[in-house]
Predict the structure.
Amino acid sequence: MKMQKVIAYGALITAMLVVGNAHPASAQTRVVNVYSARHYGALEKVFAEFTRETGIQVRLSSGSSQALLERLRADGKQTPADVFLVIDAGTLQIAAQEGLLQPIRSQVLETVIPAELRDPQGRWFALTQRMRTIVYNPRRVKPEEVQDYADLANPKWRGRLCLRPATHIYTIALTSYLIANRGEREAERIVRGWVANRPQYIDSDSRILETIAAGKCDVAITNHYYLGNQLRRDPNFPVALAWANQKGSGVQVNVTGAGVTAGALNRDDAVKLLEWLATRGQDPGDAGLPGGNSEYPANPSQRPPAILERFGTFKADYAAIARYGELQAQSIKLLERARYR
């Protein structure tokens, strides 16, 4: 796929889930413990494949990115986690800055993951990329009306806009992107414009798409892969995608990425898991990592799912990613001031 420098939750579940053909762990069992903000199901399938190939079991503990960060902080040096896998670059950056992730040197990861998608000190690496962009009802909206995030602040969308709530990391990261691109004053003007349009706040990108398809909302902002997944199931699903900010720096990019925790007891096998994920082959119908779930792989040599060809080429903003962590607290305050719910 050709692109310009481009492409080329909920409450914490404390129980550990063993993935693979697992027997009770013994002193000889090789295990990697993963704190994961990815959903169960498809991820289990991927980790079971890793177990079959390597003999290393994977134990998952699930929660939102924010909840897992708090848990990692509370664990301190006694954390049972070897790998911290979350769905936000800013959260990875904060964990790294707080000393919760350790630097690793891996020729494999440094070779296959572009510099803009990994920490310069090797404390985290992206595995997949997602773009948070504009989706709309093509029967009621013309694509030229929704070319930029700021377009959704136009009063014409009052009562016609759907958004994810302020507490979700997707909203926080998007706000950080706006601040990085346009400054805090302009970012706040845009967000206040959204709020003035009395949006429906729906805490599920999938349900946002369903709401548009049902004619109860006309425009929204979602991650691209939710529409990709819908189109896999129904090629005629009545929602269209517009790549935002193509006349500017490009659409917002975020990642699913991972790092090795500072207290990892199984460090070498944790690194092996990250290397395996970053280089594994890919079935375009697979919903696991990387490149599955209609996401773009961070490794440019891995093939994106075929459904993404429907979205065409686009420009993406990689420069803003490096600032998501430092801007996270500022973004939360901006959302509160704007009374974004």
